[in-house]
Amino acid sequence: MELRHLRYFVAVVDAGNFTRAAEQLGISQPPLSQQIQRLEHEIGAPLLRRLTRGVELTDAGKTLYDDAVNILKLTDSALERARSVARGVSGTLRIGFASSTAFNPQVFSLLHRFRESYPGMELLPQEREMSGLMTALADGAIDVAFIRLPCERSKDFACRVIDFEPMVVALPSAHPLAQKEDVALVALKDESLITFPRDVAPSLYDSVIAACNEAGFTPKLGQQSPQVTSAISMVATGFGYAVVPASLGKIDDKNVTCLPLTGPPLITQVALAWRRNDNGKAAMHLLKLL
Questions:
Q1: Do domains 3-87 and 91-162+270-288 have the same CATH topology?
Q2: Residue 29's closest CA among 55, 3, 59, 47?
Q3: Which of 22, 129, 189, 257 could form a disulfide linkage to 178, CB 3.0–4.6 angstroms apart?
Q4: Can you tell me the distance from the alpha carbon of 212 to that of 208, in angstroms, rounded to the nearest whole number?
Q5: How do residues 156-173 score in pLDDT, each as one tens digit?
Q6: 90 has pLDDT over 60
């Protein structure tokens, strides 16, 4: 049984006769009658009673008609879903986030615009440390990744910088320096610096240590937080201070105060990375929004 046979059969029933059905289908009446006869031959029973002014369904025809309508609806729906996925207007987009990039306002704005532009797309986010993120992108486990530069493995992918984000100092709100408008790193040289594992965010880690060295001191490394974002919680509990991207200052914690740094600005780059020569429509739509 061919799908077109079902379409012809339903068209004849809906039109009420062969002549109108043939006109609607854009074919002549004799080939249409032949296709219906083939369908009846395959089923082994007549489906239509040919009347003087039209057609009438037999019992077998009534049963087939209901099922045929449902089959055609399912088929049309499946085709449309497949076409939507192919156009990148439905389906899924797997997005990786390096630690703390999800808080960046440019990242948030881009994803918000993507959801407004492609409401049929499902976004599947996941956060990983940088090395795991790069491996997931290379292996095709994710489609795009928001990362922080510089990153050695980022050279294997196409990247576009979307924001230059300043770093700030996070202090316990009860700290004497928390009442100032800004703070110099050297003023904290005798206090514990809360860090995170370097493989979580290599560029952030290296830039913080380098900034301390350039300020004339070797930082006193204190308790280590598992992620960049969890450093805020550790500051709140009094473990020390942390140097974090400014967007983390949006985390609402009354026990933490974030202050700008004096001296040369300490900047981290936020970038979108994707596989070169990857023509996935959903990922390309995201890039176009940039």
A1: no
A2: 55
A3: 257
A4: 6
A5: 899 999 999 999 999 999
A6: no
Cβ partners under 8 Å of residue 41, min gap 6 = none
CB atoms within 10 A of CB 254: 7
270-289 mean pLDDT: 86
Q: Which of 205, 201, 171, 204 is nearest to 187 (CA)?
A: 171
Check whether 197 has a pLDDT greater than 90: no
280 residue type, one letter? G
Contact between residue 196 and residue 225 where contact means Cβ atoms under 8 Å apart: yes
Between CA 83 and CA 100 the distance in angstroms is 35
Q: Which among 140, 136, 134, 135 has a CA at the least distance from the CA of 154? A: 134
With a CB cutoff of 8 Å and minimum separation 6, the contacts of 118 are 88, 89, 90, 282, 285
Q: Select 91-162+270-288's CATH number: 3.40.50.970, 3.40.50.150, 3.30.1700.10, 3.40.190.10.
A: 3.40.190.10
Q: Give me the architecture of the 3-87 domain, per CATH.
A: Orthogonal Bundle (1.10)
Global confidence as pTM? 0.67
